[in-house]
Amino acid sequence: MSLYPTTLFHFTNKQSLYNILNSNFNISYAREKIIGPNNNREFAVPMVSFCDLKLSELKHFLNYGKFGIGLSKEWANRKNLSPVMYINRHCSLMDDLITGLNGIYSHLNLINDLPRFNDLSNHYHNIMNTYRYIKNYEGELIRQGNLTNPNYRFADEREWRFVPKLNTQGVLPFVAISNIKTTEQKEFCNRKVENIKLEFTPEDIKYLVVESESDITDLINHLQNAKRHFNTEIRNKLASRILTSEQIIKDI
């Protein structure tokens, strides 16, 4: 028996869940700040996030929303998702990575030979890609610009991410934090990636989560009219897999 479940959950609000069921996951830029003992990096990455938690653990992580969807890890593997790498902010590993990348970047500026420059530049960006899968083990939790927990343990979420490949046409793999500080700036960046979807099929869905029992009928009706064309057999199967946030908090 593994300590880890076979399902990944994504929590959100009601309308966003319905949009996901209609037309898959949208990619959006998320702000990230990775801190080391002496250095830090702050940027935004295009992604969709999930948590690798068992049903009994979900009650502690409904702060992202009371509506959610659980998808199989077989689906996650097919779609190139990966768990993030948690790094202790008191460990020198983050400082070493930043120093090493800065050193490679400084060498890039000294190369005049174009093939050599392109080769080293590709290696540099491949290593830079590590940043998109790194998170501090614990740190400040900020929600809507407000500090809600000065020492939040991010590792408790056991996050998995979908991140578009580095060479995805028209997608910036990183955005400077100065370009995504306001809601308007974030919406502008997200419009750049609105054509990218993280797709799934009805068969990939293991659970659906709504806030309360009063939301269940509405969700079943939505499945009937969703663009994904859930047939009667699939709707009946998914109806048996609907959980409520109230049920998770009280009974699981």
Short characterization:
By secondary structure, the chain is an alpha+beta fold.
What does this 3D model show about the protein?
- The chain is α+β, with helices and mostly antiparallel strands and 252 residues long.
- The chain has one domain.
- 32% of the residues lie in helices and 28% in strands.
- It is built from 8 helices and 15 strands.
- Strands 3, 4, 6, 11 and 12 form a 5-stranded antiparallel sheet that branches. A 4-stranded mixed sheet has the order 1-5-14-15.
- The radius of gyration is 20 Å and the shape is globular.
Rounded mean pLDDT score = 91
Largest sheet features: 5 strands, antiparallel
Helix content: 25-40%
Oligomer: single chain
User: What gyration radius follows from the Cα positions, in whole Å?
Assistant: 20 Å
How are the SSEs ordered, and which strands pair?
Elements: E1 7-12, H1 14-23, E2 25-26, E3 28-35, E4 40-51, E5 67-72, H2 73-78, E6 82-83, E7 85-87, H3 93-108, H4 114-128, E8 134-136, E9 139-143, E10 146-152, E11 159-162, E12 175-176, H5 183-191, E13 197-198, E14 205-210, H6 216-225, H7 232-239, E15 242-244, H8 245-251
Parallel strand pairs: 7-8, 14-15
Antiparallel strand pairs: 1-5, 2-13, 3-4, 4-11, 4-12, 5-14, 6-11, 9-10
Helix pairs in contact: 3-4, 6-7
